[in-house]
Amino acid sequence: MGKTAAVRRLDLGYFIRPASETGGPEPRVEPVLAYLVRHDRGLLLFDTGIGSADPGTEAHYRPRRRPLREALSAAGVTLGDISLVVNCHLHFDHCGGNPLLAGKPILVQKTELATARRGGYTIDELVDFPGAVYEELAGEAEIWPGVWIVPTPGHTQGHQSLVLRQADGTVILAGQAHDFASLFASGVLARQAALDGVEEPLPAYEHWLDRLAELDPRRVYFAHDCSVWEPAAPA
Prior knowledge:
Helix content is 20%, strand content 31%. The protein is α/β, with parallel strands linked by helices. The protein has a single domain, classed as Ribonuclease Z/Hydroxyacylglutathione hydrolase-like (Metallo-beta-lactamase, Chain A, 4-Layer Sandwich), CATH 3.60.15.10. The strands form two sheets. Strands 4-1-2-3-5-6-7 form a seven-stranded mixed β-sheet.
């Protein structure tokens, strides 16, 4: 089993989520984060940043982009060095740099790609661009030794997360499976309470947390939160 994967977070800008979507009285500024994974098999890029959008979307979210080339350069990497792309899902703030990586395999859940291609879901030019090469998955898959893709539906039906075995434990790149580390923590605790037989009512939790728990995560990273989830008890 491969245990040499190393992860570096990439800052690809931010956007302003309007108050109508925050559930509160004020808008919220959210980071857009991607992750560079160094592995014996090559360099994997998990998400690629904010793509160009139509005027309405631009006005709605007011994004500020950090170019993917610049972020990779700061990590000592070029676009040509990337071996493989994985998008957690295909909304424009997660797949915006994909056209810069034409010819590179992009791993995506079959359900997610089909939804994106039906239109009205994302920016079409970010999905089917010249040189786009998709490898469609139908569920969980080990893509490199010690590197798994695990479906984590919710934000979108085809959302997926990346699981990495490292020498000091499992790391999960959870994308937008949850917007915040605190919400992921709440789901983990809701699951634990249910397993402990705590009397209802209890909050619901995502079924895929059972699978992630089997992988014994030590750290979980997110696409729109700089915070990192870690278990309450040390390994």
